[in-house]
Amino acid sequence: MVSNQKTISLVQELNNKIGIDLKQSKLQSINTTSSSVNPSYGCGKMYTFETNGIFLHIIDIKLNKCVDIEFNCSMNSLLATYIVNGYCLFRFKNNKTETLYRPFMQYLQMTNDSNAIAKFGKEESIYIVQIVFSEEYMKKYNPVFLYNNAQTIFNNTIPQEIIRSIIELGTITKKKLCFHLYIESKCISLLSSLIESFTRDESTTQNQNLYLKYVYDIKKYIDKNLHLNHTLDELNKSTGISNFILNKEFSRFTGKSVAKYIKSKKMILAKDLVTKTSLPVYEIADRIGYKNATHFSNAFKKHFKTCPKDYQD
Prior knowledge:
Largest sheet: 8 strands, antiparallel
Strand order of the largest sheet: 1-2-3-4-11-6-9-12
Shape: globular
Number of strands: 12
Structural class: alpha+beta
Low-confidence stretches: 1-7
């Protein structure tokens, strides 16, 4: 059972409000808690792993209504938060600060408040990883820099290689040898990269934050309009930056160029429609922006190595 005295209990409070099928176990000195989202609130899973004073929280959910969570913070713990997808508004009650946690951003803070509120919006896929280093754990390493400077929230963009590490954390299994060492080493590695990222030039960070907003807005527009055929010129007409820079930053944040991202999302939606509906191929093609069913079938076969009709059969 995860101790409320040692960890920021956001996932615990999410479990209390929207969680079902709560499961707890212990393996190789790791306390593990997992749960699913109550279907009345949406879908998804939440996990907590605790080992040697480190608490790893993973939130992978999609809500169909707004949810506010009030939770307790431990004193003098170091909190690293990675927002891979979705928005979350945090308000720390003692100092009345309010911070909008945004996609592709990483945050670092020494917690010195007793209560906080997290606000999650509806119709957003939310993927958040939080790592809490307890006061007891931090004392072992006496990180003077952090104690002196992390009283306020630092934020920066998440490098693509860090996103891959975070996604890998979300797919961990208990079958690994030395599971507790794996968890601890991964969390320490992420923290080291996070601290290093805050030493970068501030002007570079400002530009990255601006590009981040453009990338996320365009990504969100693409996701909601897969029936349209987007060109880079059309998507980029309001940013004021070159197509080359936009495509480069889009690739850095998502791992794909704009064109490859659009095609991938279209194919994922097409596969869902092929396997989960009885719609004819020509109608599925139309729904993802293909006016010619043959062109769609060829693209589908190239992507999935099989024809749409084979999936339907």
